[in-house]
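Researcher: Here's the sequence for the chain we discussed earlier.
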Amino acid sequence: MLAERYASAYAAFEITDLGESSERAQKAYEHESVPVAIYAMTELLDKQKTAEQVGETAFESRHMISIDLMLTHARLAKLYSEAGQTNLSAQHFAEALRYARADSNLAVTNQNTLMDFVAKIDRVAK
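Model: Thanks. This is the structure I predict for it:
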């Protein structure tokens, strides 16, 4: 019983930390220079990958983790493209599309539809 409470408290801490990191990364993406935004998004990506390894919790489903990873990879691809780092941009586009294609409901099939989807999400987020 005590172990379950600790596990639940730890999961709550992790989701709070992930949420704060997401908020910082989004603000950097919207308002900071490209290098600062890349740094913040990369930190977020590391935390999202950890969440993916942990798997589904009471606070976050696998589906949401996957969508978050897709969005972060897509945003990093865009930022790296703006920075002229085409190889890193292509790597992140490929990863974003891999996550997008895993969700047939998204109808994201290529780089253009991916970036249209991200642009819509970004407009709503503002």
